Amino acid sequence: MNLAIFLMDQTRADMLGTYGHKVVETPNMDALANEGMRFDNAFCASSVCTPSRTSLFTGKMPSNHGVMCNSDKEGDKCDVPLEDDNLISSLPDHQHLYIGKWHIGHKRLPREYGYIGHNFDGYAYPGSGVYQGLAFDSNPLNGNRYLDWLTEKGFALPKVSDTTFGNNPNLQIQEFYGLLEAPAEASIPYFLVDEAISHIQQCIENNQRFTLWMNFWGPHTPCIIPEPYYSMYKPEQVTLDASFYQPLEGKPEHYTNIAKMWGVWSLPEQDWKQIICKYWGYITLIDHALGKLIDFLKDNNLYDDLFTVVSADHGDAMGAHRMIEKGEFMFDQTYKVPLVVKDPHSTKKGATSDELVYLHDVTATFADIGQNQIPESFDGASLLPILRGLPFEPRHGILAQQSGHFTPFPQRMWRTKDHKLVFNASGKSELYHIAQDPDEMVNHIDNPDYADIKSRLIDELYQEMQRYQDPLCTWFYRMKAVI
């Protein structure tokens, strides 16, 4: 059986059609969900790119693989050992294809782990240094296959216009969005799909099974997208989150500083809606590009038997609490990820699951498929029992580990179906009744009516931190009686 993961970057789950959004068009992802299972309580272990992606690659929690923040920021500079079990190590008879963004560990590249395809280092945005008029500067340092591809396909180097930034004068280095003056077929999502098709075609010719891990650079900002996607959605179609109008009440002051740093705290509603429209346009662009790959798979009789995963490394606040992107905050908009799985051996079609699962459960699932055995080093659990209606042990809660993003701000989250506890090591902690307050607007951490619930959640979080040898465990133990 062939396997594929289509991983989007910074995608808020509830902004996809299959998750109930009434405006955003995602017909291809919707079709996959109709042929498989949609997970409604899937979470990443960290909402920052490198820790989350490294968890997916290694099957481990961040405290166990050691990458607790982005490797291109101050902090962790470690790589995944070559000899460790990983996402593809249980599938040695497959050709391992890697297409798109990497951003795992510090310096090692996909080829060192046995992948063929792309070897973009770090964040390595392919449009940096290629798009004329783009301020965002995160150039690939290991060659830029996108630039070569544009030349091979006869596309002129695209220009970017109508760029928009936040209102912080000291952060005019990353656009929120811009118009790509090029056909959609010259955009990065279509580049990735074209590259994937080329490598799969080679596998077909060699009669070789494959695993494909294809990573998009979007809808992560900057949302640099062509027409018709740039103008596809209108501000009047946007309904802002309820928390937008009561932003960060009862939350740590640091959260407000993050919003101010991005230059969005005082943006008018109309500006916010334009940002969201471009984010939606990027999602639909990716979906349409994905549709081209699906058509190729169907034309070559590969689609029906392909074990397919669609997900994202983490989410995006995108207006919730008047915040954007991700970072040192732990709202569901940034930790709950889309997860759609099409399993050819499952009879469940168009099904949903509300079980609490991790993104890195996919890693254990691949090992289960490959060798019917999950490496002891993996922290995740196989999704096959859920997908195939077999007995399994449900989780009571989800642990998330965050050390910071732009600045150190250690956090831990314990998320059950009904409640969420956020331990902020250097700020006010948080407690939400998710079942009654899904927007996480009322912080009950100091509410005496929630004392028993808080005590129980604190004990559960501590036990889980001990289980994973969390480096924040000692500080949490000393603080847990006075949170």
Describe the structure in your own words.
This protein is α/β, with parallel strands linked by helices and 483 residues long. Helices cover 28% and strands 17% of the residues. It contains twelve helices and 17 strands. It has an eight-stranded mixed sheet with strand order 5-4-8-1-10-11-2-12. Strands 14-15-16-17 form a four-stranded antiparallel sheet, covered by helices on one side. A three-stranded mixed sheet has the order 6-7-9, with helices on one face. Strand 15 and strand 16 (419-424) form a beta hairpin. Helix 5 (188-205) runs parallel beside helix 7. The longest helix has 31 residues, at 269-299. It starts with a strand and ends with a helix. The mean pLDDT is 96.
Quick structural overview:
With 483 residues, the chain is an alpha/beta fold. The protein contains 12 helices and 17 strands. Helix content is 28%, strand content 17%.
State the main characteristics.
alpha/beta, four-stranded antiparallel beta sheet, 483 residues
